[in-house]
Amino acid sequence: MSPSLAFIDTLFFDWDDTLLDSERLGYAAFQKTFRELEIAFSLEDYESLYSPNWYTMYEALGLPRTKWQTADDLWIRHYGEEFPKLVTGGMETLRELERKGYRLGIVSSGTRSRVVREIGALELTAAFRVVVCNEDMVNKKPHPEGLEKAMLQLSCPKHSCSYIGDSPEDILMGKNAEVLTVGIRSAYPTHTRLRHTNPDIYLESVTELLLHF
Hints:
Radius of gyration: 16 Å
Strand order of the largest sheet: 3-2-1-4-5-6
CATH architecture of the largest domain: 3-Layer(aba) Sandwich
Helix content: 25-40%
CATH topology of the largest domain: Rossmann fold
């Protein structure tokens, strides 16, 4: 049974393309990364294989496990060549949720150095009470470990939390952690599969969060 909205006081967000407008930059970074690693990678590959757990994509593309860290490092370098920005309405939505008294956090599959740098560049460091990233999780999405660590750090019970994301893995992680799940349509290829995971709330944009919270 889904938690009641009346008890929710803590909102955990996925970062990439839930809040950060990263889809275009991410695809370009993957293109450059796989080109340097001499791995064929097309738009069709991206749309069919993309997952916030990048290692499943590496595996599907036949990239040897010994080169996964190299791929991560290359992606971070190429991705960092552009200044970050939030999705349309993202900043205003976060500020309004803060004003309403919600505690905010990030649970992301992204690399900590990159995610923290982007949060800082956008002057949002103080907005998030906790930031859990790839290095903090032994078990990746949709395993609930990352979300459970965030809840533990803030000492908040499941019924008071919601997880908000744009991919099927985000929703499944939230369900596995037994919190309220919110799916937001994004530009990432995974949006076409998002509805199939049956989030408790489905939104077309991040600004629609304010209709519920």
